[in-house]
Amino acid sequence: MNTIEKIIVKEKKILKLNNVLIREINESELMDVDQISYMMDSYIKSKGNSHLGPMVNYTFAEGDEKGQIRIKLKLITQLKNPINNIEKPYEFKSQVRVSNCLFARFTEKEENLQYAYSKLNLYAFEKDIKLKGDSYTVFVNKDEDNIVADVFMELQNGGQAIEGI
């Protein structure tokens, strides 16, 4: 029997990122996320900077003008130093702070990552916690077999609102 917990859940966690470069992924680009991540790396190097820590995926739902819900994705990375004169499609924020989150540490095969989201949603349901509906996934480590990912889900009535991230 495996004694290692694959998903550990905690409440009231804070995600804090400094010197953040953000790139929204369009629907037509979803299959090219790895290439866009590489291009983001190249952009950072061209600015004489380097990233600090792992890449973060920010996923959220947004309604369009027809009332249809679309899932959106933004790639986020912390930089060693701030960047001035950011060109589209990138944006820069000096700090992103998301407080009062449900948190899951996931350690398993990448294709099973959806279970971390499901466990957080189930945990929130059982504890009558209302979630905002977005998630921040921090890819902490990856080896041949498994990944370590931290998933943060913001509570609906909690924390500091992040406008326009």
Features:
single chain; 165 residues; alpha+beta; 2 helices; 6 strands; 47% strand; globular; disordered C terminus
Please explain how this structure is put together.
This protein has 165 residues and is of the alpha+beta class. The chain is 16% helix and 47% strand. It contains 2 helices and 6 strands. It has helices at 33-46, 114-126; strands at residues 7-25, 51-63, 69-79, 90-108, 135-142, 147-154. Strands 1-3-2-5-6-4 form a 6-stranded antiparallel β-barrel. The model is unreliable at 159-164 (pLDDT under 50).
First-to-last CA distance: 42 Å
- H-E string: EHEEEHEE
Number of strands: 6
**DSSP helical segment count:** 2
Tertiary shape: globular
Radius of gyration: 16 Å
Helix content: 10-25%
Average pLDDT score:
87
State the strand order across the main sheet.
1-3-2-5-6-4
Largest sheet: 6 strands, antiparallel, barrel
User: Which regions contain 5 or more consecutive residues with pLDDT less than 50?
Assistant: 159-164
